[in-house]
Structure formats: structure tokens, C-alpha cells
Amino acid sequence: MHGSGDESGFRRIRIRAVSIFAVMVCAYFFVYLQRMSVSVVGGDMTEELGGSIGILSTVYYWTYTAMQIPSGLMADRFGPRISGTLFMLLASAGSFLTFAGTEFWMAVLGKIMIAAGMAVVYIPLMKLVSVWFPARDFAFLNGVTIAVGNIGAMAAAGPLYVLSEAVGWRNVFLILASVTAVLALLCFAVVRDHPAPEKTASKEKIPVFKGLLMVLSGGRKFWNCALAYFLVYGTITVFQGTWAVKYFDSVYGFAVSSAWMITMTGIGKIVSTVLTGALVSRGIVKSKRRLMISGTLCFAAVWGIIFLSAGENDSYWFWLAVCTAFGFFGGFMSLSFTQVKEWFPVSVSGTSVSAMNIFLFLGASVSTTVSAAVIGTDYSLESFRLMWEIMFLFSVSAFVLIFFSRERPE
């Protein structure tokens, strides 16, 4: 009888854990959709309001970057439920301001609010995964999370283009404001910070700045992965999130079909993040480091192809294959979150993930800022080729960093 009660209690906890994960991972879908939306609707926005696509993209990533450490500290200090709820409401308000804005500065302010709000989704989600699920599930659930995010990125390509053409870019942001508000309310209603907070919270807490110092003093346990993802994610953001649609349209005249090519980039990343997470979680692949080395090497090779083929190959199917490979091999670096998290206690899991995340989005911020300066507004082949060469060098440097990273022994 006692065993039956234990089994029933375990089942209830498992159902609750899955429900919490479902709510937060749905929110993460919209994190990516909002992040990538500039590449599709940015042109319509700037045509009506002035300004530039580069500014809209850059301000989003700088804000998102600035919020990473505060996000982790808030998740560890105040809990994912309150943090997630309040900041999703902020993102909803930013989407509404973007919908209603009549001048470019209002769109910029809306982007800042959206970025700040959406920055406080992934880290609380990973904190929840750390406390609600067994440690062996982390790599797989992180892979699923990033896969769902990339479905959001796919939705921000072809499907968002179709929606924007049908209802206009303003109504797109009105819809996003409404959906994000609903998700904030679901976060408050469904999410709980811990299966048994009264039993565990007092034992597990580490002062926030001590936890941050613990992570940042990790040497090759932390810094190699953080700097490598800085470079890799910067290149992903420049290509997938900002310039690919404009590149394929301006240089090759692919027009609408270029948005669907970015959809294939998202599909490639979805497959790799779920696949690598499952291989590691099930023990089929023992070394995350070796898997990342292989993936990062192939990712650098894809960037080499993009650089060397710029203006030399106008085959749609060639570039479709390149975009798919780009997404697939770009997804291998998601394992670095698991590799870094395993070096630190669960009580600072939010801080360790946020410390990693800040380098991702610092990379995105730096890279998009550089790309805006290099490419400008003339969208010439020469400008794109120079940018692709810089991104190729970034990806090679990331491979070297991962090669010399450290992995926790089994």
C-alpha cells in the first residue's frame, strides 16, 4: 500500500513537471520567433517608420545580452515562476508598443522591452529542468527546448512572411502581445519553483554573487565553451537571424523562397539539437566534448563553403542544402550548456546557464553590430563576401576553443 502511494505521488510530480515544462517551452517558441522576426518584417517596419533593420536587430541583442546575468540571479533568488511571469508581461507590453508605434524610436523601445522580457524565459526554464527532472534528462530536455525554439525561428521565416502579408506587420505584433500575455498568466498559474521547496530551498541556497564567482572562476571548465558559443552564435545570428534573406534576395533574386531557405536552417538545427541531446542522455555518446568538436569542425567547413561560394553559385538547391547543413552543425554547440552545468551545483544552475547565455548573446550583439557596419544599406556582394569571411574565421576559432575545453569525467 505504501509502495502504491509512493508510485502515485511520483506520478503526480511527473505530471506536474511535464506541465511546467510544456508551458515554459511554449514561451520559448516565441522567444525565437520574436528574435528572428526582424529578418522578415524588419523591411516593412523600416519602410513605414524609417531607421534600419540593423539597428532593430542590434538593439534587441544588446538588451537580451544585458539581461542574462540578472535573469540567472533572479531565477536562483526569486524563482522561475515570478521571474518568468513578470518579464513575459513586459514582453507583451513591448509587442503592443511595437504594434501601436508611429515613429522608429517607438519600435526601438518596443524591441528593448521585448528583448528584456524574452531574456527571462530560457534560464528559468533550465532552472526548472534542473530541479524537476533527473540530471540525466538535462541534455535531452535542453535539446528539445532549443528544437522548439528553432521551430519558432522557422515560424519567423516563411510562415511569418505569409502572416505579415495577410494582416500587416502591425497586427503581427498585436497577436504576439496577446499570446505572450496568455503565456505569462499560464506561467503564474502552472509553474512551481520546486517539487518540495519547504524541504530543499534552505539547504541549497548559495549567495548569488558567490555562485557567480564560482562559475566565472571555472577556467577551461567554463570559458572555452562560453567563448566558443560567443563566436558560433554570433555567426548564426548574422546569417540566420539578420542577413540571409536579404543576401539571397539581393544577390540571387530568390525573393520569397529565401525565407523558406531559412526555414530549412531551423529544421537542420532542430534535428541536431534533439539528436545530440538524446545520444548523450541515453549514454550512446559518452563524450559531449568530442561530439561538439566534430560538429564545430563541420560548422566551420560550412562557413567556408558559404564564403567561397558567395556570388559563384546561383543554384537554389545548392544553397538550400547549405542552409540545412548550417543549421544542423550549428546545433551541436547546445551541448555546451550541459557540459558547463555539470561542473556546478544545482543551486547555481540558473547562474551557470545565464553566464553561458550572456556570451551567446554578447556574440550576437557584437556580430550584428559588426555586420551592420560592414554590410550597411547597399547590400552588395562584396560587402556580404567580406562579412562571410569574418564569420568563417570566427567559426574556426570556435573549433579551436572547443578542442581545448574540459569535460567532467564520468
Tags for this entry?
410 residues; mainly alpha; Growth Hormone, Chain: A; globular
Description:
There is one protein chain. By secondary structure, the chain is mainly alpha-helical. The chain contains 19 helices and no strands. The chain has helices at 2-36, 38-49, 53-66, 68-77, 80-100, 104-118, 122-132, 138-155, 158-167, 169-190, 197-204, 208-216, 223-252, 256-281, 288-309, 316-330, 335-341, 349-375, 381-403. Helix 1 (2-36) packs antiparallel against helix 7 (122-132). The radius of gyration is 21 Å and the shape is globular. It starts with a helix and ends in a 7-residue tail after the last helix.
Concise summary:
The protein has 410 residues and is mainly alpha-helical. It has a single domain (16-191, 207-403), classed as MFS general substrate transporter like domains (Growth Hormone, Chain: A, Up-down Bundle), CATH 1.20.1250. The protein has helices spanning 2-36, 38-49, 53-66, 68-77, 80-100, 104-118, 122-132, 138-155, 158-167, 169-190, 197-204, 208-216, 223-252, 256-281, 288-309, 316-330, 335-341, 349-375, 381-403.
